[in-house]
Each structure stands twice: as C-alpha cells, then as structure tokens.
Fold this protein.
Amino acid sequence: MILIDGKKVSEELLAEMKAETGRVRASGGKVPHLAAILVGNDGGSETYVNGKVKACEKAGFDSTLIRLAATVSEQELLQKIKALNEDDAVDGFIVQLPLPKHFSESKIIQAIDPRKDVDGFHPSNIGRMVMGLATYLPATPFGILQLLERYKIETSGKHCVVLGRSHIVGLPVSILLARNAYPGNCTVTMAHSKTEHLKSLTQSADILVVALGKAGFVTGDMIKQGAVVIDVGITRLPSALTKTGFQILGDVRFDEAASKCSFITPVPGGVGPMTIVSLMRNTLKASKKEVYSV
C-alpha cells in the first residue's frame, strides 16, 4: 500500500509556483492576486480561508480577505462581488461557502465574473469543463487529478466508482475521469443515495472516489483488492482521546481499507491540501490569462 501524501505534493506545487512568481516579480510583471470574501464566522470556513491566505504567502501571491457580518444583505454582498469583478488588480476571487441561509448561493456564484471564478463553480466554467475547453476546474476535483498524475496512477480503461453527486466534487470528478486525457479515460459509475447493490458496485471499482461527508461509511469489505481509494470526506467529531477534544475522520475506514489498497489518501493530509493548492493554480492561470483572453 502506498500512501498518497497530499500535503507533500501541495508543498511541492506551492514551491514551484513561488519560483515562477519570483521570476515574474523580478521582471516587473504582475504578481497573481487572490481575494476571498468570508461571510459570518463559521469555524470550518475560517480555517479554510486562513489556509488560503497562508498558501498565498507560500506561493508569493498577493491576497485580500474581505470579512462581512453574517447579517449582511444579499444586495451588499452582490455589490462587493461587482467591485471585485471590476478591480483589475484582482486576478481571481472566491466567495467562501456555505453562506448564511438568507443567501441564494446559486445567485451569488452566477454574479462572479467567469474570468475571475477561480473556484470553477460558475455555469460558464462548468460548461467549458464538460466540453473539454480551457477553464478553471473545480478545486477539489482538480486536486484529485493532480494526485493521480503525481503518483503516476494508471487510469485508462479502469472502472472508477464515484460515491456522491455534488456539484462541487462528485459530478465534476466523474466527468473529468471519463474525459479523453490523462488522468482520465476511465469507465465511470456515479453512485448516490438511490443506488442499489452499492457494496457489489464498490467491490468492482479499480478506483474508488468517496465524497459523501459520512464518516467511516466505506468499510474494508466494500473495497476491491488492489484498488486505488481517494477519500474526499472530512468530518470533525468530538473525541476524549485527543488533546484538541475532536478527531477528523474520512468517509473511508482507513485501517480496514489500507491493507487492501494499492494507493490510498489519508484524512487529513490527502485531498484537503490539494484543494487549496488547486485554487492557487487557477489563480495563476487567471493572472496569465490562460483561460479567458482580455
């Protein structure tokens, strides 16, 4: 079994971006600039956004964090988005999700200029992804592709089962792994809450991507011998056994799965760090106008 070390790969990629940004800075060019809007004080969102700010520092990017109260109106948020859309100094930005319940997340996402949508959630960018055009890939699926590539995991002709059909992970990763490219060329089955005979399906998977948000859902007997397991899930649970008072678990029971896998991502330290570094790579693309020409 080989552990897929997302933390190590993300640090390598950040170092590569820092070197490139250093050359740009030295030549008097424009340094990539990522902005983030954080509404409210959700603990998970705070941690994630802080991670993005630190990643910007490591990559040599400029960054801006805009904090708004949870009580801010939808119109005020839309005005902030409009200002960032029109700010030439900002190459890309994100609105951290989830938002408070009085917001329409769909409306907010669609208000972002697709040229600056480095989260890759705008319908225009999703459409470009489906058509195989240059675009900003959703960060977590993009991170998964990079891990498969860095570890030289064969995907062509393999049966990939994706558990979960969210627009953020499950649906886009199923499309990307079926595309005619590497990583890709998989035969993909996407499973969800209505799927019957799930265990027999997962047992047939050469590559199993699990993105359910249900701690320990996948047990060892659900996994094919020699399979590649990508665990996207991350659940924080109370624990009396740790100093912090909580533990972080993935969707896969790691101890049961590890003995059967050829490759597996840990939680934490697997897909999570790659999500942030993928956002950085999208921002670098935005600064270089690699997707949308001006």
